[in-house]
Amino acid sequence: MGKRDVQEVNAGSMADIAFLLLIFFLVTTTMDTDTGLARLLPPMQEDQPDDTPPIKERNVFSVLLNSNNQLLVEGKQMRIEELTEATKEFMVNPLDIETLPEKKEVEVEFFGLQMISKGVISLQNDRGTEYQAYLMVQNELQRAVSELREDLAKRKFGKEYDKLETEEQKAIRTIYPQKISEAEPKNIGGKK
Fold this sequence. Notes:
alpha/beta, 5-stranded mixed beta sheet, two-stranded antiparallel sheet, 4 helices, 33% helix, elongated
Protein backbone atom coordinates (compact mmCIF):
# COMPACT_ATOMS: atom_id res chain seq x y z
CA MET A 1 0.00 0.00 0.00
CA GLY A 2 1.20 3.32 -0.95
CA LYS A 3 1.04 6.63 0.70
CA ARG A 4 -2.07 8.69 0.06
CA ASP A 5 -1.86 12.27 -1.03
CA VAL A 6 -3.71 14.73 1.23
CA GLN A 7 -6.34 16.64 -0.64
CA GLU A 8 -5.90 20.42 -0.60
CA VAL A 9 -8.79 22.64 0.40
CA ASN A 10 -9.56 25.37 -2.04
CA ALA A 11 -9.39 28.55 0.11
CA GLY A 12 -10.07 30.97 -2.72
CA SER A 13 -13.75 31.43 -1.86
CA MET A 14 -13.05 31.82 1.91
CA ALA A 15 -12.03 35.45 1.39
CA ASP A 16 -15.30 36.12 -0.43
CA ILE A 17 -17.33 34.54 2.38
CA ALA A 18 -15.43 36.53 5.05
CA PHE A 19 -16.01 39.73 3.10
CA LEU A 20 -19.76 39.02 2.78
CA LEU A 21 -20.02 38.30 6.51
CA LEU A 22 -18.21 41.54 7.29
CA ILE A 23 -20.63 43.51 5.09
CA PHE A 24 -23.61 41.74 6.68
CA PHE A 25 -22.54 42.64 10.22
CA LEU A 26 -21.72 46.23 9.29
CA VAL A 27 -25.15 46.73 7.75
CA THR A 28 -27.19 45.02 10.46
CA THR A 29 -25.39 46.34 13.56
CA THR A 30 -26.88 49.35 15.29
CA MET A 31 -24.63 51.83 17.01
CA ASP A 32 -25.50 53.69 20.18
CA THR A 33 -25.62 57.40 19.52
CA ASP A 34 -25.51 60.14 22.10
CA THR A 35 -28.50 62.41 22.09
CA GLY A 36 -28.61 65.97 23.31
CA LEU A 37 -31.37 68.32 24.27
CA ALA A 38 -34.06 68.62 21.64
CA ARG A 39 -34.22 72.32 20.91
CA LEU A 40 -35.37 74.08 17.79
CA LEU A 41 -33.30 77.21 17.38
CA PRO A 42 -34.71 80.21 15.57
CA PRO A 43 -33.27 80.87 12.13
CA MET A 44 -30.25 83.16 12.06
CA GLN A 45 -31.16 86.61 10.87
CA GLU A 46 -28.67 88.85 9.20
CA ASP A 47 -28.85 92.61 9.71
CA GLN A 48 -31.15 92.32 12.71
CA PRO A 49 -31.81 95.79 14.07
CA ASP A 50 -30.82 96.34 17.68
CA ASP A 51 -33.83 98.54 18.43
CA THR A 52 -35.91 95.85 20.13
CA PRO A 53 -37.68 97.25 23.15
CA PRO A 54 -36.41 95.98 26.51
CA ILE A 55 -38.50 93.33 28.26
CA LYS A 56 -40.14 94.55 31.44
CA GLU A 57 -38.64 93.05 34.60
CA ARG A 58 -41.97 91.54 35.65
CA ASN A 59 -42.09 89.56 32.38
CA VAL A 60 -38.74 87.82 33.06
CA PHE A 61 -38.50 84.69 35.20
CA SER A 62 -34.86 84.73 36.26
CA VAL A 63 -33.27 81.33 36.93
CA LEU A 64 -29.60 81.28 37.95
CA LEU A 65 -27.49 78.20 38.66
CA ASN A 66 -24.15 78.90 40.37
CA SER A 67 -20.90 76.94 40.45
CA ASN A 68 -22.05 75.09 43.61
CA ASN A 69 -25.16 73.92 41.70
CA GLN A 70 -27.36 76.13 43.87
CA LEU A 71 -30.51 77.45 42.25
CA LEU A 72 -31.54 81.09 42.59
CA VAL A 73 -35.00 81.83 41.19
CA GLU A 74 -36.25 85.39 41.14
CA GLY A 75 -33.58 86.29 43.69
CA LYS A 76 -34.55 83.52 46.14
CA GLN A 77 -32.81 80.21 46.75
CA MET A 78 -34.93 77.26 45.63
CA ARG A 79 -34.63 73.49 45.38
CA ILE A 80 -34.70 72.04 41.86
CA GLU A 81 -37.79 69.98 42.79
CA GLU A 82 -39.74 73.23 43.37
CA LEU A 83 -38.82 74.78 40.02
CA THR A 84 -41.60 73.16 37.95
CA GLU A 85 -44.42 74.55 40.11
CA ALA A 86 -42.79 77.99 40.35
CA THR A 87 -42.41 78.09 36.56
CA LYS A 88 -46.04 77.07 36.00
CA GLU A 89 -47.22 79.77 38.44
CA PHE A 90 -45.15 82.35 36.55
CA MET A 91 -46.44 81.28 33.14
CA VAL A 92 -50.12 81.10 34.07
CA ASN A 93 -50.39 84.01 36.54
CA PRO A 94 -53.99 83.01 37.33
CA LEU A 95 -54.61 85.90 39.76
CA ASP A 96 -53.05 88.59 37.52
CA ILE A 97 -50.53 89.50 40.21
CA GLU A 98 -48.62 92.66 39.33
CA THR A 99 -45.21 91.09 39.98
CA LEU A 100 -45.90 88.24 37.53
CA PRO A 101 -45.98 88.67 33.73
CA GLU A 102 -48.39 90.82 31.81
CA LYS A 103 -50.84 89.25 29.41
CA LYS A 104 -52.03 90.18 25.95
CA GLU A 105 -55.28 89.23 24.27
CA VAL A 106 -54.82 86.91 21.28
CA GLU A 107 -57.30 85.13 19.01
CA VAL A 108 -56.42 81.42 19.12
CA GLU A 109 -57.98 78.81 16.84
CA PHE A 110 -60.28 76.38 18.77
CA PHE A 111 -60.14 78.63 21.86
CA GLY A 112 -61.26 82.10 20.74
CA LEU A 113 -59.86 85.16 22.56
CA GLN A 114 -57.26 84.13 25.13
CA MET A 115 -55.06 86.06 27.52
CA ILE A 116 -51.50 84.95 26.68
CA SER A 117 -48.57 85.57 29.01
CA LYS A 118 -45.76 87.83 27.83
CA GLY A 119 -43.41 85.99 30.20
CA VAL A 120 -39.93 84.83 29.23
CA ILE A 121 -37.81 82.38 31.24
CA SER A 122 -34.21 83.53 31.53
CA LEU A 123 -31.77 80.73 32.38
CA GLN A 124 -28.17 81.47 33.20
CA ASN A 125 -25.55 79.21 34.68
CA ASP A 126 -22.02 79.58 35.98
CA ARG A 127 -19.06 78.24 34.04
CA GLY A 128 -18.38 75.89 36.97
CA THR A 129 -21.91 74.41 37.06
CA GLU A 130 -22.02 70.64 36.76
CA TYR A 131 -23.61 69.46 33.54
CA GLN A 132 -25.97 67.13 35.43
CA ALA A 133 -27.34 70.05 37.49
CA TYR A 134 -27.80 72.12 34.33
CA LEU A 135 -29.72 69.27 32.69
CA MET A 136 -31.92 68.86 35.76
CA VAL A 137 -32.88 72.55 35.64
CA GLN A 138 -33.53 72.31 31.88
CA ASN A 139 -35.74 69.27 32.47
CA GLU A 140 -37.79 71.02 35.17
CA LEU A 141 -38.38 74.06 32.94
CA GLN A 142 -39.38 71.79 30.05
CA ARG A 143 -41.61 69.76 32.38
CA ALA A 144 -43.50 72.90 33.44
CA VAL A 145 -44.34 73.76 29.83
CA SER A 146 -45.21 70.14 28.99
CA GLU A 147 -47.50 69.75 32.00
CA LEU A 148 -49.38 72.95 31.18
CA ARG A 149 -49.84 71.85 27.56
CA GLU A 150 -50.88 68.34 28.60
CA ASP A 151 -53.44 69.66 31.11
CA LEU A 152 -54.96 72.04 28.57
CA ALA A 153 -55.11 69.32 25.89
CA LYS A 154 -57.01 66.99 28.24
CA ARG A 155 -59.41 69.74 29.37
CA LYS A 156 -60.18 71.08 25.89
CA PHE A 157 -59.90 68.04 23.62
CA GLY A 158 -60.07 65.09 26.04
CA LYS A 159 -56.81 63.67 24.62
CA GLU A 160 -53.13 63.69 25.43
CA TYR A 161 -51.12 66.47 23.79
CA ASP A 162 -49.09 64.01 21.65
CA LYS A 163 -52.31 62.52 20.20
CA LEU A 164 -53.75 65.86 19.04
CA GLU A 165 -53.87 66.97 15.43
CA THR A 166 -51.12 69.34 14.29
CA GLU A 167 -53.42 72.39 14.32
CA GLU A 168 -54.67 71.60 17.82
CA GLN A 169 -51.09 71.29 19.08
CA LYS A 170 -50.22 74.58 17.41
CA ALA A 171 -53.12 76.30 19.21
CA ILE A 172 -51.96 74.94 22.57
CA ARG A 173 -48.37 76.04 21.83
CA THR A 174 -49.73 79.52 21.14
CA ILE A 175 -51.34 79.61 24.59
CA TYR A 176 -48.31 78.09 26.35
CA PRO A 177 -45.23 78.94 24.29
CA GLN A 178 -41.83 77.72 25.37
CA LYS A 179 -39.90 80.95 25.74
CA ILE A 180 -36.61 80.03 27.38
CA SER A 181 -33.74 82.44 26.92
CA GLU A 182 -30.32 81.04 27.77
CA ALA A 183 -27.57 83.53 28.45
CA GLU A 184 -23.91 82.71 27.93
CA PRO A 185 -22.43 81.09 31.04
CA LYS A 186 -20.44 83.42 33.28
CA ASN A 187 -19.01 83.40 36.76
CA ILE A 188 -22.06 83.81 38.98
CA GLY A 189 -20.26 82.55 42.05
CA GLY A 190 -21.49 80.65 45.03
CA LYS A 191 -20.77 79.98 48.65
CA LYS A 192 -17.30 78.52 49.17
